[in-house]
Design brief:
Layout lengths: L3 H7 L16 H30 L6 E7 L5 E7 L9 H12 L2 H8 L15 H9 L6 H7 L3 E3 L6 H4 L15 E3 L1 H5 L6 H14 L2 H16 L6
Parallel strand pairs: 3-4
Antiparallel strand pairs: 1-2
Helix pairs in contact: 2-5, 2-6, 3-4
């Protein structure tokens, strides 16, 4: 059986590589078909989640809209179910992201203690229902609208915030060469378990190897991960 470390190393790239970014003609068609297939059966989930958000935290919208950076650096409106309190202070997150992208392990540990994950632990901006939505990845469902609009794909690198992209190293920007996705290699095999450079390497590996077969495999494995014992990270 392949170990977790071996799996992660499989999806690494030479940072100086000039290997071309791949694409395939049916990607946009498959995105539309998959999102249209998923929207009707998830409608009842949309209603349930919207109700839970309004009951537990009525002071704010159900759908959270935020500017994210997509293909070739183009910004777009990104949709999620709201999992944070409104008018929150993001200064702690900005500080964490700076050290995360810089790979400053000492400062990361100072900010979040001994938690052995690469994400902001005990984020006080997240509401109680928001923690559940994030754990189950239900907060991501509205991004099916982004896929239909063409801002995103079902599979690809996750779209980052503008202030995160401003902190990128030059080689990180290769991950902006493809359409961002709801899920991808990093979400499956890295998520909050790998440093930033490694997560970018995984995203670029995907862009260099993307195909219909690979996308369908990633989508299938994503559902297995979400509904299995592991859940979302």
């Amino acid at each position: 059986m392949t170990s977790e470390a071996e799996t992660k190393s499989k999806y690494q790239i030479d940072r100086d590589s000039e290997k071309p970014i791949r694409s395939y003609p049916l990607k946009r068609v498959s995105d539309i078909l998959v999102s249209l297939f998923l929207l009707p059966p998830t409608a009842i989930i949309y209603l349930f989640v919207a109700l839970m958000i309004k009951i537990t935290d009525p002071h704010g919208p159900v759908i959270f809209k935020q500017r994210r950076v997509g293909k070739n650096g183009k910004e777009f409106d990104f949709y999620k179910f709201r999992s944070m309190a409104v008018n929150n202070d993001d200064s702690r997150h900005k500080e964490y992201i700076k050290h995360f992208i810089d790979g400053n392990e000492e400062e990361l540990k100072r900010i979040q203690g001994e938690a052995e994950i690469y994400k902001l632990a005990d984020d006080n901006r997240v509401t109680p229902i928001g923690k559940f939505l994030r754990k189950t990845s239900l907060d991501e469902l509205p991004q099916l609208i982004n896929v239909l609009r063409g801002d995103m794909s079902m599979v690809g690198p996750r779209p980052h915030l503008p202030y995160e992209v401003e902190m990128y190293k030059p080689w990180h920007r290769r991950r902006l060469s493809g359409t961002p996705g709801i899920t991808g290699i990093w979400q499956l095999y890295g998520r909050s378990k790998v440093p930033f450079d490694e997560s970018v390497s995984m995203d670029i590996w995907y862009l260099e190897h993307q195909s219909l077969k690979l996308d369908l495999e990633i989508i299938f494995r994503t559902f297995v991960k979400i509904f299995g014992d592991e859940g979302a990270c």
